[in-house]
Protein 1
Amino acid sequence: MALLAEYRCKATPARRVVEVYDADAYLSDDDTMAAARTQVVAGNGYHLYLLSLQPDIDVEVAIRVWDVAPAPPAEVEGHVPVTIESETGVLVVNQLEYGPAGEMTLPRPGVYEGHAWWENRQAMADYYVTTLNHPADDTFEDHLTQAWNNPPVTERYGLDLAYIREPEVVDDEGL
């Protein structure tokens, strides 16, 4: 199996969510976001929602496109199968409160399947709670800024995908 493309960026999980979607599929999906609360990562075909356990410390999002999607890494906390369709060939990594964190141009438009995985999700949540337990004095905000800019671990979400077919043709004239 060969790695065809890779993209990484940092994103703030405002409201504990980072989303990945096709550049033309920007409308949210509340049912799929609710599913992410139990599955950690959930999708509706055009959107993927990645659910963190904390809302303020940047997470890393890695999107890798392979000729054949590999098995999830053995050492990760969890993983789920995913499918995402990209008519434009561009995936956006979005922060709910702050807007796009970045975008990846795929090798070609189409439907991609594979899996999402995550690591250090619980460790980052535990660290986050610990940082909030600092005494509320004049140094509290400085303490939080320092702690959140220099966490001991990096919370990561990975998407390992492989192209499977052309995107669905949408007939806009029939509407």
Protein 2
Amino acid sequence: MNIKWLIRSQSIVTLAAGMIYPYYLLFLKNLGNSYSKYGLAFAVFTLSSAVVSQWLASRIDRNAATILVASSLGMMAAMIAFPWVFSYGWVLFLQIVMGACSAMQKMSERILLADYTEQGARGISMGAYHFWTSVASGFAVVIGGYLIDWLTIDALFYMSALLYGISTWVVWRSWSSRKAEI
């Protein structure tokens, strides 16, 4: 995988996450009916992310691309599952899954950024990475707003799942072609 494929895949992930996140908050509020339940759900997400980060620490260097693929697959599954959730207990379970996937994604993207850049010459690549993922994030909220006006929140979850799936394919394809070169 080279830096261009990493930028593309993570821009797609950012698009998927940014498209659903503001509206996902509304979904949680409607399901939980209180800010304290939302707070607990977010805390579960954050704590599961922290725990998985510690568990991944010794494994991430050798398996960053595989972990990146697994994170997108996990988020895709969570996005597909959310429209079918009707109890707060399942929301908490999905928050654990999403927190774990978030840790996997963040840690693996950073390792791969380091692997595909050279010390002393990372600025241009990091700037491009930040630019494209930020652009994707900005467009995501706008796209999500228009889609939710025309469709339903369930459609946003499914669209987000599709984008996570595309990201998985981009990383897998790039990683597979790199392994074939070695």
Protein 3
Amino acid sequence: MTRPFEVGVVVRDLELMERFYCEILGCRAERRSRVPESVAGPAGLGGELVVVWLRVPSGGCVKLILPRSAPVPARVTPWSAGRAGLSYLTFHLDDMDPVVAALTAAGARPLSDPVVVPAHGRRISFWADPEGNVVELVDERGHDSGARHSN
């Protein structure tokens, strides 16, 4: 490996998703570009794309990908840990409480009750982003900060 890991997420609303990942999860937009059909097609990515590279503060990159040739269908099946394929993106945080507080206002929805779950000396929380992609938040505190989160 020569660089930190990158993951691509196909989106329907590029501006909404860029705001979500930058304002709520602390990513930083590094660049955006148009990938012409002449490149995207032979690479197996379909037609023309707009791509925004978001740098994750701890390293790595989330690429938001907007196809220009055809609309992206809405997610039709709810998330299930038992389904095959990519399941979720994990973000490790020093303190998830401020992020959890901002998620609902940003269009995300919790996927568990309680929202913050103590697990193996850590706290975890699963959310669906505004387009239904699953995001896991993890912090190492492993104890309840006093705030009770629930649906």
Protein 4
Amino acid sequence: MDRTGRGLTVAPAARPIRHLTVLYDADCPVCVHIRHWLLGQRPLVPLRLVAAGSHQARNRYPRLDHAATLREITVIGDAGQVWTGTDAFIVCLWALTEHRPKANWLATPAGRPFARAAMHTAAAVRHAVRAGGEAEPGAPACAEQCAAPR
């Protein structure tokens, strides 16, 4: 990963990353679908998925802007590293056995535009799904509409 990338705050490689925490919008069907997909992958680095803005997220990470974590994917490393947006997307792929080579390429200048395009597409789908009817606070994000991916 490029240590100088916008929003990328990778700590020096003093020790390997032992786990990553992914904050996701639990009231968004797209985010919940991606959460299920991540849980179905074989990790190289364990992923902990926590609802953004939740009591658990606020207690674990009191210095984060929790309103921002509901708007944009946020990933936190076990040494306090924080990635958002495109960088968070790349780090999630980097943590997965089958997707690490793709993540390494997406982190390069040649691959980065594709990562940004994927994030813009996901944001557009998320907006379209949510614009059709916002989930009520505290209601399940998907109900029966959003089965876990196979």
